[in-house]
Design goal:
By secondary structure, the protein is an alpha/beta fold. Helix content is 50%, strand content 8%. The protein has 16 helices and 6 strands. Strands 1, 2, 3, 4, 5 and 6 form a 6-stranded parallel beta sheet that branches. Helix 3 crosses helix 4 and helix 15 packs across helix 16.
C-alpha cells in the first residue's frame, strides 16, 4: 500500500512516554518536534523519548506563528529552543546526530521565508529526507526546496477537544479521504508520506490512547512505516538539484544561441526531466562534450540521431547563411527533441531515418 514517515509535534507532554512506548512496541521510529516551553515543563518525559531511540527536533521555543514575528524574533525562538535541546540531549546521554526544524503551524515566516531558510542552512539544520516524496502538491508548493520539515498528511487529531465537533470519526474520514484539500491521498497505492501527529494531553483526556487507535488503523490498512533518514539522502538530493540548476541555465544559453523563441527552453528542459535516460545523456554531453549513448530508442542512440540530422540537413549546410539555422547548438537541441518524440512514437522516426538520406532536399 503506502509508505510513511511519522513525525509528532509539540512534545513533550505527560502522554509522550505512552506514545513512545507504543512506537517501540510497533517498531516505529519517529521524529518528534519539541517546543522548548513544553520540554522545560516535561523534561523527564523528553529525556525518556531520546533514550528510547527517537529523534527530537526543534519546533521553536514558544510555538508562535513565524509570519507574525520579525526575522530577529524568529531566529531568537529557534536559538532559545536550541539551548533547551542541547541540555536535553546532554542529560539523556544521547549524541545529537542531526538538527531538524519544523515551523509552528507550518508558517514559514511570510516575507522572512527566504532569510529563515538561509539561516537554517547556515546553522547546519537538515531536513527529513524527502527524496521518496512524489506528491505533486508537495512539489508545487516548493517544499522539496526548503530546509525545514513539512508534511503531506495531517491527522488533525489535535482538534479533538471538549465541546469540539471534531471527533475520532473526523480523523478516520481524513485517513480515507480520496480528495483531500491539500496533500495527497494517504492510502493511495505506491504513495509516500510524511505524517503529522501531535502529543497533546488535551486529546488524551478526550480520547484515551488516541495514538494507538489511529496508528493501529493505519497499520491495519497496510501502511508501512519507514525509518527517517537525514543527511545522506538530503545531501545527494541537493547535489542533484544544483546539477539540474546548472543544466537548466545551460539549456537557456543553448536556446538563445540557436535563436529559439522564449519558452522553448522551459518546455525542452521539462521534456528532458521526464526521461531519465535522456537527462543523463544531456548531462554527460554538458560535462564531456561527448555522447554517452546508453539511452537507445528502437536501437538508435543520441549519436545516431546527430549523424542522421547532419546527413539529412546537408543541403541546408551547403546554403551559406541558411546553415546558421543548424549550428552546433541548434543541432544538439534538435537531436534531443527528436529523441524525445521518438520515445512517444518510435516507428514514425525509424521509417523517416530509413527513407531519408543526405541527398534529400528539405521541403
Amino acid at each position: 500500500m503506502s509508505k510513511a514517515i511519522l513525525t509528532i509535534d509539540d512534545v513533550a507532554s505527560k502522554n509522550t512516554p505512552a506514545i513512545v512506548d507504543y512506537l517501540c512496541e510497533k517498531k516505529i521510529k519517529a521524529v518528534l518536534f519539541a517546543v522548548g516551553e513544553n520540554v522545560e515543563k516535561y523534561f523527564d518525559e523528553a529525556v525518556y523519548t531520546l533514550q528510547k531511540g527517537m529523534v527530537i527536533g526543534n519546533h521553536s521555543y514558544s510555538h508562535k506563528a513565524f509570519g507574525k514575528l520579525s526575522l530577529a524574533e524568529g531566529i531568537a525562538e529557534i536559538e532559545k529552543n536550541e539551548k533547551v535541546l542541547e541540555r536535553l540531549y546532554k542529560k539523556a546521554g544521547v549524541k545529537r546526530a542531526v538538527k531538524v526544524f519544523r515551523f509552528p503551524y507550518g508558517d514559514k515566516g511570510g516575507e522572512n521565508r527566504e532569510a529563515l531558510q538561509a539561516y537554517l542552512r547556515g546553522q547546519g539544520f537538515q531536513k527529513l529526507a524527502d527524496t521518496q516524496i512524489t506528491s505533486l502538491w508537495y512539489e508545487e508548493n516548493g517544499l522539496h526546496e526548503d530546509v525545514d520539515t513539512f508534511w503531506t498528511f495531517d491527522f488533525g487529531e489535535w482538534q479533538i477537544r471538549e465541546g469540539s465537533a471534531f471527533t475520532a470519526d473526523s480523523v478516520f474520514a481524513r485517513i480515507h479521504d480520496k480528495n483531500p484539500e491539500y496533500g495527497d491521498v494517504l492510502l493511495q497505492e505506491g504513495s509516500h508520506h510524511i505524517l503529522l501527529f501531535h502529543a497533546h494531553d488535551e486529546t488524551q483526556a478526550q480520547l484515551p490512547e488516541y495514538h494507538r487507535l489511529f496508528l493501529d488503523h493505519l497499520l491495519a490498512c497496510g501502511v508501512e512505516f519507514e525509518e527517517p533518514q537525514f543527511s545522506p539522502a538530503y545531501q545527494e538530493k541537493e547535489k542533484l538539484r544544483q546539477a539540474l540548476f546548472v543544466l537548466k541555465n545551460w539549456t537557456v544559453e543553448l536556446c538563445r544561441r540557436a535563436g529559439k523563441k522564449e519558452g522553448y527552453a522551459e518546455s525542452f528542459f521539462q521534456g528532458l526531466c521526464e526521461s531519465e535516460g535522456l537527462l543523463r545523456e544531456f548531462a554527460y554531453y554538458h560535462d564531456t562534450r561527448g555522447f554517452l549513448c546508453e539511452k537507445k530508442v528502437a536501437g538508435y542512440s543520441i549519436a545516431d540521431i546527430m549523424v542522421w540530422q547532419v546527413d539529412h540537413f546537408k543541403a541546408y549546410l551547403d546554403r551559406g547563411n541558411e546553415c546558421l539555422r543548424y549550428d552546433s547548438a541548434g543541432l544538439l537541441l534538435a537531436a534531443f527533441s527528436i529523441m524525445m518524440e521518438m520515445e512517444k512514437n518510435p516507428a514514425l522516426y525509424v521509417e523517416k531515418m530509413k527513407r531519408e538520406s543526405g541527398t534529400d532536399t528539405p521541403d
